[in-house]
């Protein structure tokens, strides 16, 4: 394993911690600022929207410098945003800090995925991408639960201060371990934008929005759902997030392994099963043991889609992968924002804390439909591009007839 992949995973760990830790601290943040839980959910939505818009913006700004230097600049922005959140005197300022930190997210994972893929052999690209994303998933096993525990015990501001320190560690790791890869010659912004005309790239991004959105429709409101519906104590949310993180780690590694072998079947299986499990979560959320098992499955099935979707975008974007890769990271977070918003709507409408699970099931099922559409279009395109097979049988028969005595 190239040490550069470890450095990318370290950066991903810090980013993953700040992205997901807010979900376990929504009640504390809402109480501190005197806002409702659905309103506090805008901290998830705002971060996700910042990733969506920051991904193309930061990627375009970074086209004139080396990828290593851009990754370091992005980590600096991440550190500044988390410090602002930790010191925020009002909800609006905290939301601003979340958005500032989020601007680094999409471009970091987008550029990082391209770097990871270039460090290994062609048949190991999805595995390398999955290894980088392992930092994100391990954050949910270690960083997020510890951050939630610290936030509930010492205050959520301490949590975001620690996250800023994680950013410093990630910055140091990138500076030391990532090779100074030069900016690719001959690649221009217009080439990167041209990749977005590819229908398969757009379909993969749409699958990302809907499929990953299905996960976050449920997980965004996991703390109030588990305390109100399942009857868990507030302190138990930490361990539930550990279970979610363990599912993420396993799903990410399995998705990376099989995406190099059978990419589309992996998507069919994970998206279909995810839709079913989310629908069942409306029932299992009322039982502690069943809810815990379901949370593991949601994490595993949701993150099993990440390596194949990211690899599909890289494959379909051909020679201009950087912007498409970063935009797909934005698509993951657009799904987060959409799901958090829709989940907040159904809760605010009085449908209960388990209602977002139905939203997630519909979103995941929609992504599965798009996966079948994408595969059908690809088969049709392959068939149309295939050269016509010459009809040789008659000629052969004629030759045989000519030499028959």
Largest sheet: none
User: CATH superfamily name?
Assistant: MFS general substrate transporter like domains
Specify Rg, calculated over alpha carbons.
Answer: 23 Å
Structural class: mainly alpha
The CA-CA distance between the termini, in Å, is 69 Å
Low-pLDDT residue intervals, each spanning 5 or more residues: 388-405
Specify the CATH architecture.
Up-down Bundle
Number of domains: 1
CATH class: Mainly Alpha
Q: Compute the number of helices.
A: 17
Shape: globular
Extended strand count: 0
**Helix-strand sequence:** HHHHHHHHHHHHHHHHH
- Strand fraction equals under 5%
Q: Keywords, please?
A:
disordered C terminus; Growth Hormone, Chain: A; 405 residues; mainly alpha; 0% strand
What is this entry, summarized?
The chain is mainly alpha-helical.
Structure description:
The structure is a single chain. With 405 residues, the chain is an all-alpha fold. The protein has 17 helices and no strands. Helix 4 packs antiparallel against helix 5 (91-118). Its main location: membrane.
Give the secondary structure arrangement, pairings included.
Elements: H1 3-33, H2 37-40, H3 42-61, H4 67-86, H5 91-118, H6 125-154, H7 156-177, H8 189-194, H9 199-219, H10 222-230, H11 237-259, H12 263-284, H13 288-303, H14 306-317, H15 321-348, H16 355-385, H17 393-403
Helix pairs in contact: 1-5, 1-6, 1-7, 3-5, 3-15, 4-5, 4-7, 5-6, 5-15, 6-7, 6-11, 6-14, 9-12, 9-13, 9-14, 9-15, 9-16, 11-13, 11-14, 12-13, 12-16, 14-15, 15-16
